[in-house]
Design brief:
Elements: H1 2-9, E1 17-20, H2 33-41, E2 45-50, H3 59-67, E3 72-75, H4 81-90, E4 93-96, H5 98-103, H6 116-119, E5 126-128, H7 133-136, H8 140-151, H9 155-166, H10 173-183
Parallel strand pairs: 1-2, 2-3, 3-4, 4-5
Length: about 190
């Protein structure tokens, strides 16, 4: 709850949301219900590491996390079909971290086996992320380069992915419009 209280206290300094991450093998996610309810009551957005490893991907855990009404989900690797359907129905933003998922062996295989291919045309905005530049040594530019190299995406498609991600940023309407304006020339 301390994190949520700090986020609320510092909203005027630009805090717009909170993230649940950490060791996915420790603890019970249901203990966060009151914290996330309080965050939502104070108009803070929510992103959650979700189905990152098989041990944290039980039906109970995933449904509990979805009950917190997050705007975005990170990783979304070990997701059962019925939960995938719910994610698609809600059109949640999905934070995909190629280098992290491959190098930490969170997926089977290499970059071409990444679940980006599955989620790409499912109607959910995709947010390409690094997860942890300090550990995995991959910049955001490199993540986009990996998409181009391993999935054959061209400049326009990469720009369109970025444009799609703007819709699930926690920015103001004005900032989203400014970002769209900056990206528009690359989407033609």
């Amino acid at each position: 709850m301390q994190t949520v209280d700090l986020a609320i206290k510092h909203k005027s300094r630009g805090i717009v949301g909170i993230d649940l991450c950490g060791n996915p093998l420790k603890g019970d996610v249901s203990i966060y219900k009151s914290a996330f309810s309080k965050a939502k009551a104070h108009d803070l957005k929510l992103t959650l590491h979700f189905a990152e490893v098989p041990a944290s991907s039980s039906e109970f855990e995933l449904k509990t996390l979805l009950s917190y009404e997050p705007e975005r989900l990170g990783h979304v690797i070990n997701v059962p079909e019925d939960i995938k359907d719910e994610i698609k129905k809600r059109k949640l933003g999905l934070e995909l971290c190629l280098t992290c998922n491959v190098n930490a062996r969170l997926i089977s295989g290499g970059f071409t086996d990444h679940h980006f291919r599955y989620w790409r045309d499912k109607g959910c905005p995709l947010v390409i992320c690094t997860d942890d530049v300090g550990i995995f040594g991959s910049s955001l530019s490199n993540e986009y380069l990996l998409l181009a190299k391993h999935f054959g995406l061209k400049r326009k498609e990469l720009a369109e992915l970025s444009l799609e991600a703007i819709e699930v940023t926690f920015a103001s309407a004005e900032e989203k419009e400014r970002l769209r304006w900056l990206l528009d020339p690359f989407c033609r």
